Amino acid sequence: MAKKRQDKAGSTDRGDDDLSLWEKVAQTVAPLGRSKKNRVPRVATPKPKDKPHGKARRKPASEAAPPPLPPRKPPAPPPLNRFDAREQRRLATGRSDIDARIDLHGMRQREAHSALRAFLLRSQQRGHRTVLVITGKGAPRGTQDLAPGEGRGVLRRAVPLWLEEPELRQVVVSHTAAHIRHGGDGALYVRLRKAAR
To answer: Degrees (nearest 5) of the Cα angle 63, 66, 67?
Structure first.
């Protein structure tokens, strides 16, 4: 209790000292006139920034960085069209030319797939419009030297599926079985897209 009283007494003594000091200073100061020259410009006091308390301050939703864009998907390859029946008749009768041909029969699948891809890309770059792909009708029955999965007529079944792969759909417009004079079931007419310039 005694300490509290002493503190209170001390604070009033300090208050009296401050008041008397202020009165002395106020007597020496002359008031400014109302002229624009003597006016002191007001300066806006900056607002104190929020200090983080151990954790990083969260930005409001309006200041937050936009979410990252999803990865851009490559454009979907164009779908295959139906082969033009009139063009097929013109090829069969020889009124339209076949620009190039490749013979795949006798090749293994991996070798045939690689050869077909290279042939189609090269043909497109050369400006060819219609090519003939010969798959063969399959090895004769009883052939013993075939690798596993290389049964009768594998290329005849596989080539149309390869032509529908996304990479080759960038090159191929359409395909259909060839006329008997060009190989029938063992060959395909393939129509190519124009090469991009």
So the answer is: 140
